[in-house]
Model the fold of this input.
Amino acid sequence: MPIGESVMEDKELLAEAVRLATESVENGWGGPFGAVITRNGEILARGQNRVLLTGDPTAHAEMQTISKAIQVLNPEAPSIAVEHQNESTLAYVARPEGSPDPLPERARMLQGCSIYISGAPCPMCMSAIYWSRMDAVYYSCDLEDTARIGFDDSFQYEDFERPLGERRIKIEQIHPELGANAYAAWTNRADRHAY
Ligand SMILES: Nc1nc2[nH]cnc2c(=O)[nH]1
Done:
């Protein structure tokens, strides 16, 4: 595993992200996006855009790399893979009996890590970066470069600046009293752990 690789410079790390991006394009797996997540100058995880391979619009380089980094840091964590038991129930793989609750540790997410990306992050990936609590983002091509090769990243940032009623996708609050039940279930849990 990459943990333990010798300390790498910014340029080397970015070059590795670009290598992953190019590999994805050459294999027809996805757009020209690759990423590495580092801690103390060492690579923790690598990822590349695999949207065309998987048909999954969330398979962006950054999302793939964040998931891998979390797995590397939490190898013993219960799998978040869901099994469809029936149409209305999702069962999570249970934590082994008696093992300590890893949530507080996991909730630190990727603090202390940085991400190097071939192109500036789209809003989805930037949100994931915020949620993962990374310290820094370094990218090579900017949003204008990305728009020029046909990707919507900068348009989405622009859309977020518009009032809700003027956005490209309809967004509207309906029945707030229903969701309030789930929110109450959360606030009623004494052992809740905000992340
Ligand atoms: N940064 C980045 N921008 C994208 N735009 C479309 N896909 C991607 C991706 O994987 N990463």
User: Anything to note?
Assistant: The mean pLDDT is 88. Helices lie at 10-27, 51-54, 61-73, 103-106, 123-132, 143-148, 153-161, 176-187.
